[in-house]
Fold these 3 entries.
Entry 1:
Amino acid sequence: MATNAEVMPQALRWADEPTRTASAEEEAKCATIPSTPATCAPEQPEHPEASEEEDAKALPSVGSQRHGSGCLPCAWFWKPQGCLNGAACLRCHLCPAGELKRRKGEQKAKRAAARAESPDSDEEQEAQSELPSVGSRLHATGQCKPCAWFWKAEGCRNAQSCGHCHLCPAGEAKARKQKKVAALRAKEPEPEMVPVMYQAVQAVQAVQVPMQYPTLLTPWSNMQQAHAAAKMNMCPGCTYCSSIQPCTFFMPREAGERRTAHEMRPFAPPVPPPQQPPQMLAQQTQQAPQPPQPTLPSRGSALHAEGQCAPCAWFWKAQGCHHGAECGRCHLCPASEIKLRRKAKAMAKDQLKTEMRNATSSGTLILD
């Protein structure tokens, strides 16, 4: 006789057999019948778009939708301040804290494996490993770029991964810059100058005369005597200055100052006496030999004899004046002419100020 304990498992087994046979029959039917939405296809929600929106809202960020299938970990999410973009972040907030470092390590390992599999010889790899930086490979060819940080106290932070050369000496960068500047200057055309003019020009000592202005208290005769002492000195041996008569006096003026009628009178040649007939004057002018006009080194040198020229500051430098003969400033003035004129101008201004102060303190009025 079978006991109740033995009968119960058998009864349960018999009760499960009809359900198993029914499920097997349904699977066989599904295998023979093509899949349709009404037969074997899994049940889908009525609104798939709504379900996707709900899933997106449930995720911590927009970039977390691709988690596990090519997402990009967010490096700021695991920091103390957190990700400032929040749910709008395009990177994944579901990746663990060290995921970004792990992926970088994998990429480095892949690169190292690719380098190991490259066809370069062992000797070349050893030579490259012995170089102090990556940019030092071109040092032998002369096409390398010197590293400016390598010779400083703090050194180069990039070390062997630096793209500049660490084999060049300390002053190589400055030396290359100087060579480049010298090459550019050598390409520029030098202005053509007459060699005689360099020998004729000599330094002229500037005469500093205190500036005096005509007032109601000082007569004009005294002013003429003061101006007579300020006559301009001609350059000894200069072909241009010797061919032109010197002016009566030279007096620097400021822009906007008033001048008297005597000062504004133009320089004109002397008028011939009226006793001579015009025919004789014409014959004399035709017979008189005209002196050859000397060639000027620049356009601005035409006013050198009159003392109204503007000295050229570039003419006396090493590179010279690039404009050459077309320069609008004087090339006949000595090198120190600009400084001397500035000093004379400053002294004249100071003296005028002191005179004005003395006149105002004494109660007299000075009129121009």
Entry 2:
Amino acid sequence: MVCSPRRLANDATVASLLERPGRWDEDLVKNRILWLANCEVEDVIVKFLICAWLIWFGRNNLLYEFRGSGKGSRVSKSCQPGAKVWTLLVSGSFKLNVDTTLDSDISRYGAGLVIRNDRGLIIVAAALSFNGNVPVDIAEAKAVLEGLLIAIDLVIFPLCIESDAYGVVGLCNEVNISNGDIDNVISEMVSLEVRYTDVSIVHISRDCNRLAHSLAKFAISNGCYCVWNVDALLVSQL
């Protein structure tokens, strides 16, 4: 299944779920659920479920993930290597979280990408599936490269890339040395980082990458290559 990039928030199926900011129209929601249950178009169902999931995940993050810490402390910790907790960025910046999963039994690997703005709201999400059996480090490097290319295409800068692939992050920052097949991918990423100077990449804990990991698993299970441009305003209304 292949989904072309689109603004999910413009889809009447999703947008009409909100009667007004912060309130749900219960009857409308029930009607939409009944419509979805009878829908025979798999593409529509998948888009609806993923968008609803992203909205719910973003809403929970806003309500619970940062509770107990002030905004100033979150900003000061942003983009620190080896971060244990997902943190916000300084005003005007964006953060890309990347993760990968592999399934050698079906010769496929998936990449999950999530881009958030400086308020922590999801603005872009992607579930990308690739065919072939490749080493983990190459899969992780290609996932980072795909995320960077999407950010460049959408002109999303300044950008902080976060990955739990310690080796890949080290290679991108010229901390580690490699002579393997991964060099070509790393070289392309580094050349893009030089060209687009408002890009940095840091290592984080896997716990900070849960949504990206879930999207990677979704990609590998469904064999899809999907990029969603999500309206952050829709998320903020929940």
Entry 3:
Amino acid sequence: MFQKRRKYRFNKGQFYIDVSVLLLAYFALEAYINYVCKIVDPQKWKNEKDEFSKGKFRGTEGKYDYIVEKCGLPKLKKGERPYQSIKKVKKIRDYFTHGKLIDFKYKKIHKDGREPDIFHRPLDDLITSEKADMYFNDIQKFIIEFHENLKKSKFGDKLSSHPFKGPTSISSNSTKIKT
């Protein structure tokens, strides 16, 4: 996605493209963790809302921690990238998902008769094109490395060869002949 948007960097609307791409990247991360969680513990996944809404394994990060613990995988170093990038993108996701207002003041000095550029937005410092590239690449790298580690676990045979090239759904059914 970022390769296609590089030619639009000169455009003032670039910020919105960056936000959209980062939100979709985070949604992909959440979806992948949900996908793996169902494979690792189908019983726990049946009650996902109850099992992952409180306590040690709360939310997306909690699901990740649960998978890591259950599979004996190496944990992310929380003070480093890619964890810090994921945490920042989660902040962006939460900002848009929960719609909490942010009060801020901004003073812009401009020439008489000339409109100032758009006011400073709270996310301007968090999302620059350079940071968006870094965050996106970190999320993609994290998912791929997580997938590679999972492939070495006892659940590896249930995963596709690449995290972005597998099935988009899992299905099973059975039939009975009524007698």
